[in-house]
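tool_call: predict_structure(chain=1)
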Amino acid sequence: MTHAIHPYYQQSDADADDDSALPTSLVWSTVTSGPARQFIDEWARLSRRPAVLRTVNSWSFLPRPVTDLDDLLTVCGFGTPFDDSEGDRVLWHITRLAAHDDLAARVCLHRIMPAVLSVARRRGRITQGGVHNAIGDAISTAWIVIREFPCDRRQTKIAANLVRDVEYYGFVRNQRLRRVPEIKIDTEEFDEIIDEPSNRTVDVELDDVLSLASELGVNERHIDLLQRLGTGRHGDDIAHDRGVSPRTIRNHRHNAVESVQNALIKNGLAKKL
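tool_result:
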């Protein structure tokens, strides 16, 4: 499993003597193979390389010089409050540079890596191929999303927007396309087709809100429950799957909705009704 720790984490004396104490890197993993392990190891090798740091510190938009790449992550908002506008602006500049700069793209990817892998684990439980394939898909999608991110149109909440795009293009969009069968029909049959109202906009909005809520730290069980309900699953069926009563699911649904609302309101993304 891949983890993120707060950049200002300090080990206690007890932790320092404990073999299981957290490492000092901001993003770390207990897995021994796979794309996540590869990217984290590459980051560790690059983090203090003099040539890399000279390049990074030549970026004129940085508010101060950085001592290593983890330090750069904190400058672009890793572990800071969601409303850290300065960090958000630095990340915007890095994302803009990432369109044609591999190192900048690598920084962006590491900045959102914990959230991307969280999406992959959640989606991997309900998609073909499982979590392992979902992680590979999420990372490759993230690279493309970063390279093609429309910085001129989207200039705030960069990390949340990147993660939301990764989830949509990596897992949501293709699933929707597969729901529509390809059928050959004659020209005259077009007259018999009845246009039905599409709920695609509602689906996209729900996915956007839940992806953002996940980035804001809403409990993954709340996110998972709302996603299942959003796909049309009945609460009684979910209760049966989880081995609880329908009333418990109704209570969980209420708590989940409240958690999402509170997270959005707290970060100025919604107004209290």
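agent: Residues 1-23, 176-183, 189-201 have pLDDT under 50 and may be disordered. Proceeding to next step.
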